[in-house]
Amino acid sequence: MGHVIRKVGIEDLEALTELMYAYIVGFYKKPQPLRTDIHRLIRNLLQEQGGIQFVVDQEGELVGFATLYFSWSTMKANPITIMNDLFLLESYRGTAAEEDLFQKCQIYSKENGYAYMSWITAPDNHRAQQFFDKMGGTRVDWVNYTII
User: Is 3.20.20.30 the CATH classification of the domain at 3-134?
Assistant: First the structure.
C-alpha cells in the first residue's frame, strides 16, 4: 500500500505536532513553539476558515504536511491561497508523495475558486527551488520583507 494525501483530522493532532516540530526545529533550526500553540494552530486550521492543512499518510504514519492560508489579491480582486509550508521527512523528498502533496494544494486552490496559489522558499533551499521549477512554478520579481 502507498501513500494517501488527505485533509488533516483531529485524530492527527499529536502526530502532526511532531511532524511540525521536525519542520520547525529540525529543518529550519528555529525555536520550538509551545505544544499548546501548535495545537491551537492545527485546531484553527481544522475549521478551514483561515486555511487548511493536508498530510501525507504512509500506511498510518504521517510523513509530510502542507499548509495553505487563505488571503486576497488586490490586483486580482479575488481570493488566493498561500502555501506556507510543504514539508516531508527527508526520505520522502523527491518522491511521488512530495509531488502528490503539492498537486493536492494546487487542485484544492483551483477547485475552490482561488485566483492562484503562491509560496516562497529560502534562498539557499536549492532542492526546493528545483522541485518548484519542475512543478511549473514561476519565479517572480517581488522582494519579501518581514518585521517583528
Answer: no
